[in-house]
Structures are given as C-alpha cells and as structure tokens.
C-alpha cells in the first residue's frame, strides 16, 4: 500500500464508534457510507473514495490492523471514528487531508459525538455486526429500541451472511419467542414464503414487507432482504390484523447512496448450485437518481428423493431524490419457482414412535414421482414516497401490488389406514391465485409542549385481498407406498371427461377489504418515554365455495353443490389500543411496562356447518428490562408477558378439514436475549424463551390416545387447562462469530451455534409428547484480500446447519409427523468491487 489513499463512497446504517475526535475538526455534512469489514487499509481506501477526503498514513502504522466497517448516514468524522474503533489510532484534519496517528496512551475511548448527538443507525438498514439500535417496525417512526416499551429483536444483514439461511424461517432460528420451521416446508427448508408454520409466543404470526402484510410465497427470499425484525406481542395498532403473538417485519433492498457491486457463486450438498448478484450505482452524475438490482438463480435437490428446489428471481429498484425534502423509490420483483422443495408428512409410527421395521429414512419419498410438481410464480410492484413539509410535519406513503400463482400436483398420506409397512396415498391437483393491493399513508412529525417532546403519527391503511383456488382428488383407485422399500407405479387420473376417472373437487373464491385509521404519540420527558396509540379497523369479507364430483353411476356427469355462499359482505370491526412506558437510566438500564390489544378477522374459515367464526381478539401485559452497555455495541433484554386470546381455532377432530372454536387460550412466559459486538472480531447472539400456552376456557372435550396403537381410550377429558399442542415450552439458542488473530491466519473467521427446542404435545388433551432436540451449526469464512492484495474483495464461506445430522421431528399429531432438516452444507465465493 502507498502511504496515502484517496477514494469516495457511502451506505445505509450507522453505529457507535470508539475513538477520539480531534477538537479542531468541524462537523461535515451528513453523507451515506458503506464500507465493508476487513483490513483497515482497504477500509480507509473505501472511506476516502466515499468522503472525498485524502487519507495519509504510513504503511507500517496500519499493517495487520482490521476494521469492523461502517454503514449509514453520518458525517465523515463519525464514519472515520467508527472505522478506527479499537485500532489505537486517531486522526488530525488539515483542510481536506486526514492524517492518522497513534492515539496517546492516556486517551479514554468513547462514542463519537457531533453537536452532542450520538450517531444513529438507519432504522431500515442492515445494522452493524449483530446489533441494531433503531427500528421502524415497532412504531413506524425512527425510534431507538431502548425507547420502545415492548420486546423487539432484529436479525441483521451480517447475521444472515454468517448463517446463510435459505428462508425467513431459518433466519429466525436464533430469535427469542419464535418457533420457526414447525411445519411449512416439511423439513426440507425451502423458502416457502409467508406459509412457513412460524409461531410467535405460541400463536401463528404474519409477515410484513416494508410495512405491508404479504401473502406472497416469495416473501422468504433472504437474498432480497436487508434485515428482518421480530415484534413480539400485539402489533394491531400499527399494522391491523395481527395475532397477539406479534409480527415479522422485513425490509427489501433499496438503492444505496454509494456504488455497490457484488456477485456470488454458491454450492452445497444435495446438488446445490447458486448464483446471485447485487449491483447499485447512480444514474445521474449528481446521484439524485440511483438504481439497484439484485438477482438469484438456484437449483438443488433436498434430503428427500424426487423432491427438488429451483428458483430464479430479480429485484430491481430505483430511487429519485426529487429535492432535498422529497424522494420516491420504485421497486419491482419477479420470482419463478418451478420446484418448491417441499416433501410429504411421515407416519408417526416409524419416526417419533418405534416401528418393528425400524426408523423411516428422511430420504424416503412418500408419494408418486410421476405426480410430483410443486411450484409458483410471484410478481410485485411497490413504491415508497416521502416528503418533509417542515420540521413539524412529514408525509410517507407505501403502496404495493402483488400476485402469486401456486400449482401443486402431489400425493399426501391418508392417515386412517396406515400400517407398519404401507402408507396409503391420496393424489390431488391444486391451483391457487392470490392478488393483493395494499397501501399505508401517514403524517408524522415532532413538536414540544412545555418540557414534553412529542413524536406523533396519524395514518390510514387499506388492503384488498382476493383468494381463488380449485382442487380435485382422485378416487379412481387406492394407491399406496411401502415405507421401507418404495415401489412407485401409480398413474393418477385427473381428467374430468374421462369415463374411468372418479374425481371430487371444489372451487373456492374469497375476498376481503380491510381499512384502518390509527394514531400514536411518543411522549418523552427527560429520561421517561411514554407510548400511546389506538386504531379502528373495518373489514368486509366474501366467501363462496362450490364442490364438484363425478357420479359413479353416470359417466362424464358433474354434480355441483353450492354449500356455502356469502356473496353479501360480512362486516367486522374492532378498536385496538396500546399504552406503555419505559425509563432510561443514565447507566444504560431501561425498565418498561406495556398493555396492548389485537384483532384478527377469521377470513375464509368456517365450521362444518358453514358458519364463519367470530374474530380473534387478544390482550397482553408485558414488563421487561433492556440494558445497553454504555459505549459498547452490547444490548441485553428480558421480557415477561401474559396474553389472553378469545376464539382460538383448532382442528375439528369429528369433521375432517374443518376448524372449531376452542374458546380462550392463555399464553404466559418470559424471554431473555443478547446481541453483542464484543470486539471488532467477536460477535454473539443468544436467547432463552419460556412459553406456557393453555386452554383457559373451553367447552370442548376429547379422548386421549395410545402412542403405540393410535387408538383412543378412557373417558373424554375437558380441554380446559390443557397445553396447546405444537408449542415448545423451552427454547435456547447461542451463536458466535470470531475472526482469528492475524498472527495465526490473517483473514480467517469461524462461527458456531447451538439450538435447543423442548418437547411439544401432540394433541389437545396432552396424550403424549414429541422429543426435545438440540442442533449444532458451524461455519468458516476467509477474506483472500487480507493476505493476497490482488485478490482484494474476494471472500469464501462455508455454513453448516445440524452439524451432527440429528434425526428429529419438528411437529407430530395423532398419526403423522414433520421431519426436521438433516445436515446442510452451503458454501459460496463472493466478490465485491
């Protein structure tokens, strides 16, 4: 390296920096920086390019030093301070030239401050290391996590890079209060989008992209995400229809203020091959118009024979800074997934429970290879508009249209006549189309009344959702498969006008329109923050279904029956509210307390008589502690909660494929979590969750059944007081990443994680439990540029999950189980320039 470096760049999120700022320096104009972690020499070159300043330093001074990088909008002084954190260096400024020198031994390191204000992170950016300090998800305003009186955790971009999750469910594995992958992908781990079986504090959850609810099957593509946020507890005031367990928020990639160029080639077991790219640059010379385009192409098998995963997708976006107060961002997405990578269920006897013939292999395909097509197509368009009227009033609007088409030609297990060696199959043909239009518009700003500081929001949102599906079942014959020696020979018959086909099917059409208005005031007095908010929702639903079947005695004749028709809108409405307070002590501790309510209309769900269910209504009390270690990127949180929800739905055991109202359920427990960048080289996340969810009030009864014979026995028991099935009471996780010292192997890093999931009950009267399990993850990454200068920008990585290849069940019912994913090994070569 020469003795000086000159460059100019910028990015998306800031953080605390720990070095000393020369008192002679004046504050630069805020810019956006994006300097990746790596060698200090490379980081300084990027900083110079992005700031327009000339950095002068002797090679011997920075040799062997590394930097954690910096991303976010801040001044050049703040960015440089963060780049030099922990290096023992400081700087002097003369005109436009920055000179680096060793800091004096008696200097105390602390956070960089300009005008008395600590640098803030971008609330929608990637975070720094494993720590994010600000969020939009909890309040729809740029608010520090330490000032929000409820539990929120953030999966940063760096965490996703280190763990290489293929879906949102996998990215949530280390988050408190979350049970991910309990059902949706049947163990194969494909990015199945919003339908992933994620449970939050014991309740099913909803996914939001850029603040709007999504039902897209491509919502789980992590290659297109900047960060993922977990809001535990009711979020209905800000987002409308969410369960009391909480919501998952995702931020799509947007154009960066500075050039970004990245390509990656991936590989892995089960024949995985992947290619991605992520390019962002300015369109105009001034940079007021910028673009970004990300893409992915992947093909692989899975742990199950005859089940493959294939996907290609592209995410282009364009940002136009119309003036210094107005901006518009346009985003599009198209995703084609011809192979979804989901397998079938497995019999409980032979997985969880012993089978005299042994354990059923994860590779066994329980279906018909000739009738095995699962795929989807997704398209999306979104715009985000922002305008600042003055220092008191701002306006923001997000609009999105999305369309998903899902086609499934598959067979599933008929659970009634399972034997020790044979599984009867039911072929089906299923087609679904969903179309969603949503918009959220809000005014927000700040004002003061005497000694009180107010951050206010008033907004309205709507969502028009249309769901259309048709399916048919083939009853022409009774196919089956041997569980231990599969022999596939069945040819389905799915032609309605074929004389030999015996089919039964149905067509469903449902739609709803939801509109809500909401308000919120965040009141701050000295170190006390108070949050007050309310919302009114209105929902109109329509639902219609027609069943169709061939007549066994009269060939080629369809018999149609309209067994449910609600062409007239079914209105539902509710008012939800929340209140909370949090106090920040000057030594970093912040206790809080909050109360909030939730509302979810039961759209498209009916009992066996065709009657719709009452909406879900919930309420939560939460108390907790947050501790931000002063001058460190270490955030510790603890939360205790009590939730009640009325009209909780469960499967109707007497009427197959229908639900029934179980009454009121009660969920209570606590969560502890840590997110920490201990040093530039060591990052840690950890969490423990305890969730006890039970039927608090119910008139339903059921018999227990024998885990060996699957036969019921004894008298019917009341479900009241019983544990809700499928929810683990205890979960623990830990993950760390460590860059080895340069005198060992320069540029080499390793990581390791462990995930424990406790037992769950298999039915509503606690007949028996699934097995608890613990899984281990590990990885290694290497920066070639640290040792070989001409390979600057090239990195290699391998990420492994379920290192011990543990055989486990994520969820079981009376007759079937979902198997967890076996050992997965993913690697990639990534080049940044």
UniProtKB/TrEMBL annotation:
Subcellular location: Cell outer membrane
Entries under Pfam families matching the protein: Plug, STN, TonB_dep_Rec_b-barrel
Annotated Gene3D superfamilies: 3.55.50.30, TonB-dependent receptor, beta-barrel domain, TonB-dependent receptor, plug domain
Similarity-based family: Belongs to the TonB-dependent receptor family.
One GO process term, biological-process aspect: siderophore transport
GO cellular component: cell outer membrane
Taxonomic source organism: Komagataeibacter xylinus (Gluconacetobacter xylinus)
UniProt keyword Iron, yes or no: yes
Keyword Lyase: no
Signal peptide: 1-17
Protein name in the entry: TonB-dependent siderophore receptor
Domain Secretin/TonB short N-terminal: 53-103
CDD domains referenced in this protein's UniProt entry, alphabetically: ligand_gated_channel
Primary localization: membrane
Gene Ontology MF: a single term: siderophore uptake transmembrane transporter activity
UniProt topology in membrane: Multi-pass membrane protein
Keyword vocabulary terms for this entry: Cell outer membrane, Ion transport, Iron, Iron transport, Membrane, Receptor, Signal, TonB box, Transmembrane, Transmembrane beta strand, Transport
InterPro entries (UniProt xref): Beta-barrel_TonB, Beta-barrel_TonB_sf, Plug_dom, Plug_dom_sf, Secretin/TonB_short_N, TonB-dep_rcpt-like, TonB_sidphr_rcpt
The organism's taxonomic lineage, starting at the top: Bacteria, Pseudomonadati, Pseudomonadota, Alphaproteobacteria, Acetobacterales
């Amino acid at each position: 390296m020469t003795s000086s470096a000159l460059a100019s760049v910028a990015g998306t999120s800031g953080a605390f920096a720990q070095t000393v700022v020369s008192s002679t320096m004046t504050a630069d104009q805020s810019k956006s920086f994006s300097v990746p972690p790596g060698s200090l020499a490379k980081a300084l070159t990027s900083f110079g390019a992005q700031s327009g300043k000339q950095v002068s330093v002797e090679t011997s001074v920075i040799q062997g030093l590394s930097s954690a990088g910096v991303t976010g909008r801040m001044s050049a002084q703040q960015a440089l301070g963060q780049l030099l954190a922990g290096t023992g260096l400081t700087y002097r400024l003369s005109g436009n030239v920055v000179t680096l020198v060793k800091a004096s031994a008696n200097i105390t390191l602390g956070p960089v401050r300009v005008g008395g204000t600590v640098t803030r992170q971008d609330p929608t950016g990637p975070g720094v290391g494993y720590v994010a300090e600000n969020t939009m998800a909890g309040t729809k305003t740029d608010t520090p996590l330490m000032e929000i009186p409820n539990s929120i955790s953030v999966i940063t971009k760096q965490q996703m890079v280190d763990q290489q999750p293929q879906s949102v469910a996998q990215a949530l594995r280390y988050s408190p209060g979350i049970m991910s992958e309990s059902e949706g992908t049947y163990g194969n781990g494909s990015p199945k989008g919003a339908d992933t079986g994620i449970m939050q504090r014991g309740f099913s959850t909803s996914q939001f992209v850029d603040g709007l609810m999504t039902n897209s099957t491509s919502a789980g593509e992590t290659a297109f995400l900047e960060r993922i946020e977990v809001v535990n507890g009711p979020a209905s005031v800000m987002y409308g229809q969410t369960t009391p367990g909480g919501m998952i928020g995702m931020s799509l990639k947007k154009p960066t203020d500075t050039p970004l160029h990245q390509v990656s080639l991936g590989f892995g077991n089960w024949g995985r091959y992947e290619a991605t790219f992520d390019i962002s640059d300015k369109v105009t010379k001034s940079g007021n118009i910028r673009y970004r385009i990300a893409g992915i192409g992947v093909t692989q098998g899975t742990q199950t024979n005859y089940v493959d995963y294939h996907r290609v997708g592209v995410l282009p976006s364009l940002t136009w800074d119309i003036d210094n107060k107005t901006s518009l961002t346009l985003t599009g997405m198209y995703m084609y997934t011809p192979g979804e990578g989901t397998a079938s269920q497995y019999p409980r006897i032979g997985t969880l429970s012993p089978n005299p013939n042994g354990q059923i292999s994860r590779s066994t395909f329980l279906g018909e290879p000739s009738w095995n097509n699962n795929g989807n197509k997704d398209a999306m368009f979104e715009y985000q508009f922002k305008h600042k009227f003055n220092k008191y009033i701002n306006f923001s609007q997000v609009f999105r249209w999305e369309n998903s088409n899902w086609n499934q030609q598959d067979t599933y297990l008929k659970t009634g006549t399972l034997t020790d060696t044979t599984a009867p199959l039911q072929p089906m043909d299923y087609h679904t189309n969903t179309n969603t239009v949503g918009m959220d518009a809000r005014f927000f700003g700040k004002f003061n009344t005497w000694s009180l500081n107010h951050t206010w929001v008033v907004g309205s949102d709507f969502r028009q959702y249309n769901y259309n599906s048709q399916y048919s079942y083939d009853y022409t014959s009774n196919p089956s498969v041997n569980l231990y020696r599969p022999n596939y020979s069945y040819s389905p018959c799915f032609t309605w006008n074929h004389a030999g086909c015996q089919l039964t099917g149905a067509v469903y059409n449902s739609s709803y329109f939801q509109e809500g208005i909401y308000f919120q005031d965040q009141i701050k007095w000295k170190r006390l923050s108070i949050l007050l908010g309310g919302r009114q929702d209105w929902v109109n639903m329509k639902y219609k279904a027609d069943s169709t079947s061939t007549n066994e005695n009269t060939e080629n004749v369809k018999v149609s029956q309209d067994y449910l028709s609600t062409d007239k809108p079914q209105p539902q409405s509710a008012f939800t509210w929340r209140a909370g307070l949090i106090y920040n002590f000057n030594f970093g501790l912040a206790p809080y307390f909050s109360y909030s309510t939730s509302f979810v209309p039961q759209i498209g769900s009916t009992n066996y008589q065709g009657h719709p269910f009452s909406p879900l209504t919930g309420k939560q009390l939460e108390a907790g502690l947050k501790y931000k270690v002063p001058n460190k990127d270490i955030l510790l949180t603890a939360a205790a909660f009590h939730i009640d929800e009325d009209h909780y739905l469960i499967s109707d055991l007497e009427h197959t494929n229908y639900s029934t109202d179980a009454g009121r359920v009660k969920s209570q427990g606590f969560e502890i979590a840590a997110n920490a960048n201990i040093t530039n080289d060591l990052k840690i996340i950890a969490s423990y969750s305890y969730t006890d969810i039970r039927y608090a009030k119910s008139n339903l009864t059921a018999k227990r059944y024998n885990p060996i014979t699957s036969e019921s026995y004894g008298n019917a028991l009341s479900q009241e007081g019983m544990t809700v099935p499928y929810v683990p009471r205890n979960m623990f996780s830990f993950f760390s990443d460590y860059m080895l010292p340069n005198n060992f192997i320069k540029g080499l890093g390793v990581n390791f994680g462990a995930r424990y999931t406790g037992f769950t009950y298999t039915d509503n009267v606690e007949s028996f439990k699934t097995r608890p399990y613990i899984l281990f993850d590990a990885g290694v990454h290497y920066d070639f540029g640290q040792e070989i200068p001409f390979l600057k920008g090239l990195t290699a990585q391998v990420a492994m999950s379920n290192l011990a290849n543990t055989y486990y069940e994520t969820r079981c019912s009376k007759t079937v189980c979902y198997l967890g994913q076996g050992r997965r090994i993913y690697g990639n070569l990534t080049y940044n320039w």
